[in-house]
Design a protein that fits this description.
The C terminus is likely disordered. The strands form six sheets. The chain has an eight-stranded antiparallel sheet with strand order 8-7-9-10-21-20-18-19, with helices on both faces. A six-stranded mixed sheet has the order 1-2-3-4-6-5. A five-stranded mixed sheet has the order 11-12-13-17-16. The radius of gyration is 35 Å and the shape is elongated. It has 19 helices and 29 strands. With about 750 residues, it is of the alpha+beta class. The longest helix is centred in the last third of the chain and has 25 residues. Helix 2 packs parallel to helix 5 and helix 6 packs across helix 8. About 30% of the residues lie in helices and about 25% in strands.
């Protein structure tokens, strides 16, 4: 007997979202499926115990993209999903960010959220469904949590906003805004846009927050009707007494330290010295003393971190002083450079304070575009941006273990920021890869990557539509309602603050947003202020960038490939490729060019060697030509038979020079005149209805017209192309007859 689940539904935008629970994964803390159209995401949420000695909240959020959801078998050698794809990692991060702030401080129980794609209709994206599914699974579970959250995507087509647009609508949209929040405030924003003005972005954010209300209300209803009782937990927090004792001991030295501008190393070294001295004083129990009068190391460290946060935040809110001495709107010193690598196609160095990024741009043919094996209808990616964060960038020593989820996310953000200004394929037919190396980090390396990569692209000669700059904004609040928005936050302010709000764009508008909130939400007014303050900062940063390189270079670097575009008839593609790719390989080997062929007959020829590219171009353009009677061609002998030689006069086109037409005098053997690979200059004397081409070398030697040549060669019939010569009407050449008669007119010379 099948167990019946319970189904709930609501309308978000103008589309019905359906949630079902009770049928699947009964041993999970909470499990549901959430669907829109035929796209369905499964989510589970489970809480475990507390591991010994743990001093952080062990939350893990994972999304597994199962290709069976779209009726696909993975393209890997093993034919199964392996390491999470970039898209799956980004969806997991997108889901984690609004969930994490709503767990209670001091929670140490392991919490795991796992999501699978169950069905993908290729119409409705799955990432927004995953966030809503994860929130719902937690809400009906036994896990204590401050949710729910709702999530929505907002697009804009022809100036009109669309809630939860389809893939097709997104293709025409100039906005891709993904937003998650609670009933009262926005928690997370991830956005790509085509130079959207700040006021329009604010409208989209307002619409997004309004649109999540139905899914939030539905989750509250489900929790009330079917939710499990929340589990009793222990919160590992210092008492108010402990916090006061530690604060009173360390706040004075902290303020003394912060009274002078500090570098990152000075700040952390100074704080460590204060912490070590206070820990010895407050936690070390002298022999024979009452241990209860002293603090445990764990409680002291929790209280010290809180004291550090309180001191730094109060100085910013009350005095307007930041740890490095800047005002709330001040940007750290900036310097830039280009052309750092002599062999790279383009490089951009961007340094802001103690954050330094070196970006490298590489150009290649469209055949180097990334092929995507996922559930999205988008199958290739022409512009790729990768980000690396080595341990030396923070003065640390760690093993290199491959790319982290954070590195994937930062690369995707920079890619999103720059993609709107990348020139169209028709105007600039290159695949483009940019790699940003974080050489030094003290806050906002992702926005540094945007700036460095803009310079790298311009240095490479990529005609971007407009330069892009980026800045990270922060927020400090308190319980009384005071707040300060900070421009260009450094690492300390990110760690101790309430917001990391990254904004990138051109002078005309925003191209990317990413916001993470550590508090319960951000008001619309704060959001508008942050956007306006970020615009001012972006323009100042951009002026420093453009002082080094005002616009994209007019020419590519000497080592960058030049791409020539050629159009051939679609029915000639096979001739260019040849059997098993033989022709295209031979042409690439001969010319040194890289050749990419599109289905519509567009051919891209890339080569650093201009001469090789020109030869390849001439050969390929020849495919569109037809042999014209009377025209003279120079070609190579590609086959020799007793009755004549086959000469390649155009790409994919051979013609027959009958033995009687090889020379002005009588020829006994074809080999007496030519050998394989020799070049012969010949005239086309005839093309029959099947396309077989008849050639004459004698006509060139004698200076005959096409009519004269045809008359002199009337003893022979039209030859063929290479295949025609092998398999066609050889009898037409009268191989066994009188050679004088076949030559036609030779005795009348």
């Amino acid at each position: 007997m099948n167990k019946e689940g319970k189904t709930f539904s609501t309308v978000v935008g103008n589309k019905t979202v359906t949630i079902e629970t009770g049928r699947l994964a009964g041993q999970a803390g909470g499990a549901i499926t959430l669907g829109l159209g035929d796209s369905i995401v499964f989510a589970s949420a489970t809480m475990g115990g507390v591991r010994d000695g743990i001093d952080f909240f062990p939350l893990s959020v994972d999304y597994e993209e199962r290709l069976y959801a779209g009726g696909k078998i993975p393209g890997s050698f093993f034919r199964r999903e392996g390491r999470a794809s970039t898209e799956a990692i980004l969806t997991a991060r997108l889901t984690d960010r609004p969930l994490r702030p709503l767990f209670q401080d001091g929670l140490r129980n392991e919490v795991q959220v796992i999501m699978y794609s169950f069905s993908s209709d290729g119409i409705n994206p799955l990432d927004i469904l995953a966030i809503n599914a994860a929130s719902t699974a937690i809400m009906i579970s036994d896990i204590p949590w401050g949710g729910p959250v709702g999530a929505v995507r907002v697009g804009r087509v022809n100036g009109e906003f669309i809630v939860n647009p389809t893939f097709a609508e997104m293709k025409a949209s100039d906005l891709d805004l993904r937003l998650a929040g609670t009933k009262d405030a926005i928690l997370m924003v991830e956005c790509g846009a085509s130079e959207i003005p700040e006021d329009v972005m604010a409208q989209a954010l307002d619409l997004g927050h309004q649109s999540i209300q139905p899914i939030i209300d539905l989750q509250l209803q489900m929790a009330k009707e079917i939710g499990k009782p929340k589990r009793e937990i222990t919160l590992y927090l210092p008492t108010e007494e402990v916090k006061k004792k530690v604060f009173d001991r360390v706040s004075g030295p902290m303020n003394e330290l912060l009274d002078k501008p500090l570098s990152k190393v000075e700040f952390y070294a100074g704080m460590k010295a204060i912490k070590d001295a206070a820990e010895v004083e407050l936690c070390t129990v002298p022999e024979g003393a009452d241990a209860s009068a002293y603090l445990t190391t764990a409680s002291f460290r929790e209280a010290f971190e809180q004291a550090e946060m309180d001191v730094v935040r109060e100085r910013i809110l009350g005095l307007g002083k930041r740890p490095d001495g800047r005002t709330p709107t001040e940007i750290r010193p900036i310097w830039c450079d280009v052309g750092v690598s002599p062999r790279a196609h383009g490089t951009g160095l961007f340094t802001r304070g103690e954050t330094q990024i070196l970006s490298f741009a590489t150009l290649a043919t469209l055949g180097e575009a990334q092929e995507l094996d996922n559930l999205s209808p988008i199958k290739t990616k022409r512009y790729m941006h990768h980000y690396n964060f080595p341990p030396f960038s923070t003065g640390e020593v760690k093993p290199l273990r491959g790319q982290s989820r954070r590195e994937v996310g930062h690369g995707a953000l920079a890619e999103r920021a720059l993609e709107p200004v990348i020139p169209a394929e028709a105007a600039f037919p290159y695949a483009i890869r940019v790699v940003s190396e974080a050489l030094s980090s003290n806050g906002s390396t992702s926005m540094g990557s945007v700036c460095g990569s803009t310079l790298a692209l311009m240095d490479a000669g990529v005609p971007i539509k407009a330069p892009v700059s980026g800045v990270a904004m922060g927020l400090i609040t308190d319980s009384t309602g005071r707040y300060k928005i900070l421009t260009d936050i450094q690492g300390t302010e990110d760690h101790l603050g309430d917001m990391d709000f990254k904004v990138a764009g051109t002078a005309a508008g925003i191209t990317a947003l990413q916001m993470d909130i550590k508090i319960s939400g951000l008001s619309a007014q704060m959001m508008k202020e942050a956007l306006a303050q970020a615009h001012t900062a972006r323009m100042e940063i951009m002026s420093k960038m453009l002082a080094v390189l005002p616009k994209a270079r007019a020419d590519l670097k000497p080592h960058a490939p030049r791409i020539i575009t050629v159009k051939i008839p679609v029915d000639k593609i096979g001739a260019l490729i040849g059997p098993g790719g033989k022709n295209i390989r031979a042409l690439q080997e001969e010319t040194g060019a890289t050749i990419d062929i599109q289905d519509d007959g567009t051919v891209y020829i890339a080569s650093v060697d201009g001469a090789g590219a020109k030869i390849a171009q001439e050969r390929i353009e020849g495919l569109g030509e037809s042999a014209v009677i009377g025209n003279i061609y120079t070609g190579k002998v590609v086959r020799i038979e007793a009755f004549g030689a086959f000469v390649n006069i155009l790409p994919g086109m051979d013609g027959l020079v009958h033995i009687s037409q090889l020379a002005s005098e009588r020829v006994e053997k074809v080999e007496d005149v030519c050998a394989l690979g020799d070049e012969l200059t010949v005239m086309v004397t005839d093309v029959d209805p099947q396309g077989k081409v008849r050639l004459s070398r004698q006509a060139v030697l004698e200076g005959w017209t096409a009519e004269e040549a045809k008359e002199k060669d009337k003893g022979g019939r039209s030859g063929g192309n290479r295949n025609g010569g092998r398999n066609g009407d050889r009898g037409g050449f009268n191989r066994g007859g009188d050679r004088d008669r076949r030559g036609g007119g030779r005795d009348r010379k």
